UniProtKB/TrEMBL annotation:
Its EC number(s): 2.4.1.-
Gene that this polypeptide is encoded by: 11409911
One family name in Pfam for this protein: UDPGT
Record organism: Medicago truncatula
Source organism phylogeny: Eukaryota, Viridiplantae, Streptophyta, Embryophyta, Tracheophyta
MF annotations from Gene Ontology: UDP-glucosyltransferase activity
Protein name: Glycosyltransferase
């Protein structure tokens, strides 16, 4: 039997590329051939910002190759990424199949691991070539499950949400989540709190597409989401939970943080030196991920809240996060170096595992959530959109790993929550965070659930490859 050749294709977004590159490395360690596909725009960005990492990962793994595909966007007006991800995905779905077919043929691909965000992109091609199609859903199991349940929620009139006054109504028809989720915790898109029908159609298409694949991979672990996973398994019998992927990879490689970076922004490592000068668990790490944008007012509420809390903070403010570039300068000038440091992009995994970090003020992106879980760092959640409101609800209400400031942006709330997490309720949150971090580690160590599931997945890929 020939070595399986797996094509891995992430959606063009930071969290997706990071995670799927880690999956690629885990499969490379097991000696599989990997073709890692990115859009040209993302590939060029990765190369320009991480050239040494791309070179060394290619040297380290001769069975890895990078390929590119057009994103079919107007190059002059290229708006970047994140903000136009939905357009890019639609264009690739519309025009990308011939390029994908060429790669499958020329590289003799025997299995496709496709980001679930691409929906049906490869369904027909996999059938045509008789190869396996595995969907990688980069979100939490709870998000996959709530999307799956959307038709039922519509039938029961639980959605659409009827307005702002309806936001605290409990959602009852999601098995495994009874009495946990309110309307305000549902995934949301755009600026509206309502889940409009176009978006609803899209998430339903993704669910249908995943059902048509041969298997589904989730970046989660059994102990974190077991009641939801047992519900999902009733519909997706071939489900591989192999996360937290970054921790799985680091454990397998016996390192403490990623050896290869896939950043879309230039990393500022000065923050690591600054952290060295801070006392144990004294710093609040603040980051709202790779796509969140904020208004001047919102930024100022957080800034005053952090200053008033009197706790030191390390804050990531991307250049494209605020319209008004002067604002970042203003904040820097108004913050003393001992109390706070603002950087454009941090080595987040490394930051979270630093002994000086006491809490994470996060937008509750799924990767950030998992990275915090692994390091046992309690969270203050300020979810922005998409799956984040659901993640933050699980963090606060189900796992008791932090506080959820959803839909509120107020300096007093920021100050109080920082003090609750760092001082008043420190013991309680530290205890639950340490317990969950231990379970995460157990899952990726030999004989843990994610470890065993990865072995099963590899066995499945090998046994089904022609
Ligand atoms: N990240 C990073 N440095 C930063 C901010 C974020 O390396 O300064 C990484 C973070 O570790 C995570 C990813 O970017 O892996 C963000 O993914 P997430 O799912 O949390 O949020 P998204 O960016 O998709 O909203």
């Amino acid at each position: 039997m020939e070595t399986p050749h797996v094509l891995i294709f992430p959606c063009p977004a930071q969290g997706h590329v990071n995670t799927m590159l880690k999956l690629a490395e885990l499969l490379l360690i097991q000696n599989l051939h990997i073709t890692f596909l990115n859009t040209e725009y993302i590939h060029n960005r990765l190369i320009s910002l991480n050239i040494d990492d791309v070179k060394s990962i290619s040297q380290c793994y001769p069975k890895l190759q990078f390929k590119t595909i057009s994103d079919f966007q107007n190059k002059e007006k290229h708006p970047g990424f994140g903000e136009n991800i939905v357009d890019v995905i639609s264009s690739i779905n519309m025009y990308g199949k011939p390029s994908l077919r060429d790669i499958i043929v020329s590289e003799k691909i025997s299995c496709i691991i496709l980001d679930g965000g691409f929906g049906d992109l490869a369904t027909d091609l996999a059938a045509e070539f008789g190869i396996q199609l595995i969907h990688f859903r980069t979100v939490a199991a709870s998000t996959v499950w709530i999307y799956f349940c959307m038709p039922k929620l519509l039938d029961c009139n639980e959605i659409p949400i009827r307005g702002d006054e309806d936001m605290d109504r409990i959602i009852r028809n999601v098995p495994g989540m009874e009495n946990i989720i309110r309307c305000r915790d549902l995934p949301r898109f755009g600026t509206s709190n309502k889940m409009d029908h176009i978006i609803l159609d899209k998430v339903l298409q993704l669910t249908q597409a995943s059902l048509k694949g041969n298997a589904v991979i989730l970046n989660t672990f059994e102990d974190l989401e077991s009641p939801i996973l047992s519900q999902i398994r009733l519909h997706f019998p071939k489900l591989y939970t192999i996360g937290p992927l970054h921790h799985h990879l680091n454990t397998m490689k016996k390192t403490t943080s990623s050896s290869f970076n896939s950043n879309f922004f230039k990393v500022d490592r000065t923050c690591m030196t600054w952290l060295e000068s801070q006392p144990l668990k004294s710093v609040v790490y603040v980051s709202f991920g790779s796509t969140t944008t904020m208004t001047r007012e919102e930024i100022l509420e957080f800034w005053h809240g952090l200053l008033n809390s009197k706790k030191a903070f390390l804050w990531v403010i991307r250049p494209n996060m605020v319209q008004e570039k002067r604002l970042i300068k203003e904040l820097e000038e108004g913050t003393s170096k001992e109390k706070g440091l603002i950087v454009e992009w941090a080595p987040q995994e490394e930051v979270l595992s630093h002994k000086a970090i006491g809490a994470f003020l996060t937008h509750s992106g799924w990767n950030s959530t998992l990275e915090s879980v692994v390091c046992g760092v309690p969270m203050i959640c300020w979810p922005y959109f998409s799956d984040q409101p659901l993640n933050s609800r699980f963090v606060s209400e189900v796992w008791k790993l932090g506080l959820d400031m959803k839909d509120v942006c107020d300096r007093n709330v920021v100050e109080n929550m920082v003090n609750d997490i760092m001082v008043n309720k420190k013991e309680e949150f530290s205890k639950s965070a340490t317990k969950m971090a231990d379970l995460a580690s157990k899952s990726v160590n030999p004989d843990g659930s994610s470890y065993n599931n990865l072995q099963d997945l590899i066995q499945y890929i090998r046994s089904t490859s022609p």
